[in-house]
Amino acid sequence: MYQTAQIIVIAALTAFSSALPQSSQGGAELQGLGTFNNYASQNTKNCDGLYAGKGTQELANNAANKIYQAALSDVSRGLGEYYCNYSERDSRNHPDQCTDEVSGTTYLLPNYSSYTAPGCPGAPCGKCYTVTNKANQKRITVQVVDACPKDTAWNYCKALATNPADNIPASGRCADPNTNQVDMDLSAYPALTGQSYQNGVTPNLDITITPNPGCTVS
């Protein structure tokens, strides 16, 4: 009787623990949101130092290996929060940083020549993930080459458009801790959808995310 009760308790605890949400750090599949960015146009990326002196075969977006560049939100609880060295002005989301209007919209960005984005030494540079488009099960490998900081003007300005209809919600600008956001290079969109990327038209994607240690650079 005692042994039977023990077995029942252990089984109940096992079932309870398996039902708990798990971080992808441990290998569990996560539900997430895929957004897109033109990493090829960036002069610098947060993780540039990781690749210094390494062969091109280890770089993200390698054509032969079909590895796409990406960044993770710094506040995502599921993917693992990380540290960014925000200035006082950024940590308070100063609207006067948001000076440049995007042509054809009231969408605002900081000035390229005067604004310096925070560095994020805690970003998981070089880590790889398998990203799957839930709509069609197409999947790709992405590698972290940059950071997506919640409190940088490149992100918080997206919520300060002069026309509120142009504002981007927190879940689409790396600002929602409950959204596992993977911000991928534009070239990943056709691979996940079979369609061309169209700026301002292409929707974000519902995705699943799992760690892929096979291509991780350290």
Q: Which structural class is indicated by helix and strand composition?
A: alpha+beta
Radius of gyration (CA) equals 20 Å
Helix percentage range: 10-25%
Widest beta sheet: strand line-up: 1-7-2-6-5-8
Q: Which geometry do the CA atoms define? A: globular
Number of helices: 4
User: What share of the residues does DSSP label as strand, in percent?
Assistant: 15-25%
Mean pLDDT reading:
82
Uncertain runs are 1-23
| N- and C-termini, Cα separation | 53 Å
Written as H for each helix and E for each strand, in order along the chain, the element string is HEEHEEEEHEHE
Largest sheet, in brief, is:
6 strands, mixed, barrel
Q: What is the tally of beta strands?
A: 8
Short description:
The protein has 218 residues and is of the alpha+beta class.
Describe the protein in words:
This protein has 218 residues and is α+β, with helices and mostly antiparallel strands. Strands 1-7-2-6-5-8 form a six-stranded mixed barrel. A two-stranded antiparallel sheet has the order 3-4. Strand 3 and strand 4 form a beta hairpin. The longest helix is centred in the N-terminal third of the chain and has 18 residues. It starts with a helix and ends in a 7-residue tail after the last strand. 33% of the residues are buried. The N terminus is likely disordered.
